[in-house]
Amino acid sequence: MKIEKSQFEWTANRIHSLRLRLGWSRSDLARRLECSIETVNAWELSQMKPNHDQLPMLEFIEKQAEYISLEVHVCPIAETQLEKSSRSQIPLDEIEIM
What we know:
By secondary structure, this protein is mostly helical. Helices cover 59% and strands 0% of the residues. The chain contains 4 helices and no strands.
């Protein structure tokens, strides 16, 4: 199985999509990455790429966005399973995702 390099690169589209998925402004992302709004704008216009120090935080933010997205998707499923099991809580890893 060949893995495309673009899956791991922080492209302009990937940064822009992540920011929009989170509902963040360029200012929000810049504040969290401790850089300027102009820097975020340059990334999104493919004028420059994030530096090595910013990559771990970008990865962390992306993973958090994916986790939150999964929780939002799982919530209705969890409600149904709670009703069937007569429990007040159900661990996320016990939820049967179709």
